[in-house]
Automatic annotation (TrEMBL):
InterPro entries: Glyas_Bleomycin-R_OHBP_Dase, Glyas_Fos-R_dOase_dom, VOC_core
Keyword Membrane: no
Tagged with keyword Transcription: no
Record-annotated membrane-spanning stretches: none
Protein name: Catechol 2,3-dioxygenase-like lactoylglutathione lyase family enzyme
Classification via Pfam families: Glyoxalase
Length: 132
């Protein structure tokens, strides 16, 4: 058993795809036409880190309630945790692609960490191994 996907509400499919693929190095797994429950067109867009089983379903905000949740999906808390093998390389790559970090990297007992924001403003942890 595993979680296949979790949803991230976004304002624009293509901007979200560019952010996750270019800035974070994710793979675009699916991008297919679909429809809403009431028959309006939408897309089924899934991205995920290379080798991962769990993906992010990028869902276009639909209606006032979902628009209000964009960038606030976890009420200001870190809601997603991106583990990488090479923290410094990932951090450098993300900075080069315009990713905003809330803080400088710091070392914790569980590893190297820095909070960053996705394209909608949701906070994430970038986590790497403890430096030796």
């Amino acid at each position: 058993m595993h979680i296949a996907n979790t949803t991230l509400i976004v304002r624009d499919y293509d901007a979200a795809i560019r952010f996750f693929v270019d800035a974070l190095g994710f793979e675009l797994v699916e991008d297919a036409p679909s429809t809403t429950d009431d028959g309006r067109p939408k897309r089924w867009v899934v991205v995920r880190p290379p080798g991962a089983e769990t993906g992010l379903l990028l869902a276009l905000a639909d209606g006032d309630q979902q628009e209000a949740a964009v960038g606030r999906q976890w009420s200001g808390r870190v809601g997603l945790f991106l583990h990488v093998d090479d923290f410094d390389a990932a951090h450098r790559h993300m900075l080069e692609h315009g990713v905003t970090f809330d803080e400088a990297p710091r070392d914790e007992p569980y590893g190297r960490v820095a909070v960053f924001r996705d394209l909608e403003g949701n906070p994430w942890d970038l986590l790497g191994p403890t430096p030796t």
